Amino acid sequence: MDRIDAMQAFVAVADLQGFAPAARRLGLSPSAVTRMIAALEERLGARLLQRTTRSVTLTDAGSRYLERIRRILADLEEAEEAVEGERTRPAGRLVISAPVGFGRLHVSPMVTAYLKRYSDVGADLRLSDRMINLVEEGVDLAVRIGHLPDSTLVARHVGEMRRVVVASKEYLNARGEPKRPSDISAHDTIQFGAMSAAPDWRFVDDGHEVRVSPSPRFSSNSADAAIQYAEAGGGLTRVLAYQAAASLKAGRLRIVLAKFEQPSLPIHIVYPTSRLLSAKVRSFIDLVTETADWKFT
């Protein structure tokens, strides 16, 4: 016996004062309703209804039980409506993960626009360069840059990201501009450690991958620190295009070896499942695809 179905049957019998009208409301046979009530009384160990040939009335235990299960069924209906509402209109709290730098510069403004558009949603933006487990850490969606490993996550492609080698004009005037990846060995280099577990700088020359292993004068796990040192004439550094965007726009840095760059990295929004996707997640993805210019190419 389904307990909720039995409760609903009991409420219907009590309201309509009969098994036959309750059965019609519920779309069941009178005998099915009778069996449900009998099973409910047996499980509770108490008689809930007094039955005569002419009427059905509540016992004292039935009256007390009816009062309580009305509240239970009302709470259940409210909970179901709330969940169903979240599927049709954005509501609740949206938890987003993003890389630190990209999240600060590009995801955070998108969250601001999202909260202005959807007043019933709260947001939690978690910035970390660590690859987190969305399900274990209670994250609704994550913005990730790079090729995705095989996983059970659903991915939505939302942008592209170049990997660029940059240097200051002063450095290039003094040391010359490298023409091919092999020329890097004659230059001072700056290693940004968060780019990859491997220190190699990878390029494509005539369709073939070329790897260069620089010997950096300066290394850092901070893109800002690597770029600042490059601006000061410290040498060549390889970073993601968005990390150097402000310096390039201001003319403090220049891109070199552009024709040897690897294909751009994809930017994805990933989330655990596309089945019964909540409105708050779907609407954030829609906002990004509609308004964000995340093509750093």
What is the first-to-last residue Cα distance?
A: 61 Å
Cα shape: rod-shaped
Q: How much helix is in the residues?
A: 40-55%
Strands ordered across the widest β-sheet: 4-3-5-14-6-15
CATH superfamily of the largest domain: Periplasmic binding protein-like II
Tally of contiguous helical segments: 9
Report the β-strand fraction as a percent range. Answer: 15-25%
**Main β-sheet description:** 6 strands, mixed
Mean pLDDT: 90
- Total strands: the figure is 15
CATH topology of the largest domain: D-Maltodextrin-Binding Protein, domain 2
Counting structural domains, the number is 3
In CATH, the architecture of the largest domain is 3-Layer(aba) Sandwich
Order of helices and strands: HHHEEHEHEEEEHEEEEHEHEEHE
* Helix-strand category: alpha/beta
Radius of gyration of CA atoms, rounded to a whole number: 32 Å
Identify low-pLDDT runs.
none
- The CATH class of the largest domain, by name, is Alpha Beta
Notes on the structure:
The relative contact order is 0.14. 41% of the residues lie in helices and 24% in strands. It has 297 residues and is an alpha/beta fold. It is rod-shaped. The protein starts with a helix and ends with a strand. Helix 1 crosses helix 2 (19-26) and helix 1 (3-16) crosses helix 3. A 6-stranded mixed sheet has the order 4-3-5-14-6-15, with helices on one face. It has a 5-stranded mixed sheet with strand order 11-8-12-7-13. The longest helix has 29 residues, at 60-88. It contains 9 helices and 15 strands. It folds into 3 domains: 3-86, Winged helix-like DNA-binding domain superfamily/Winged helix DNA-binding domain (Arc Repressor Mutant, subunit A, Orthogonal Bundle); 92-161 and 265-296, 3-Layer(aba) Sandwich (D-Maltodextrin-Binding Protein, domain 2), CATH 3.40.190; 163-260, 3-Layer(aba) Sandwich (D-Maltodextrin-Binding Protein, domain 2), CATH 3.40.190.290. The mean pLDDT is 90.
